[in-house]
Amino acid sequence: MHHHYQAVARNLSLNHNRHDLTTYPVQTLVLVDGVHTGTIELVNFAKSLQHPWHAVHIGINPEKSAKVQQIWDEVIGEGELVVVPSPYRQLNRPIRTYVETLLREKPDTIVHVVVGHLAMESAWEQALHQNSVLVFNLALNGLERVVLTIVPHQIRRHQTPDDPVDRNVLTAKDLHGD
Fold this sequence. Notes:
alpha/beta; Rossmann fold; five-stranded parallel β-sheet; 7 helices; 5 strands
């Protein structure tokens, strides 16, 4: 353990490493599984950063991808939505390959990946939802010039009587996939 902490200290040391304060261009990617209020929060966040941005959808199911594209065009209506096919139903390999390609094409650019996270009121509710944030974090781990930002979307269990009920929101199938 001692050797591990020494290696970390050497890697963080200003005396043993090159350091320069440079501003690099940033390309923001908004990871999109579907189009809903959480997606709008992600897009608003990306736009507020005032860097070039586009959305990326990992296309596990072609029918769902087509529906996401259609709703994106109707509801968001701006920014490009890139569908990255995933014929083997993986999230990690397609996003890593896509980001590695961007890094090769733009060697001086920082790739900023913005991913949403459904934040529940209780731990047991949180456990019901797959945590794709962890998958994306592991997939992008070790890539230099890649930054991951998690944007939580608060899910409230209890609506007030005045809250309208939107029947076109998320279904359990939307939240859990196929």
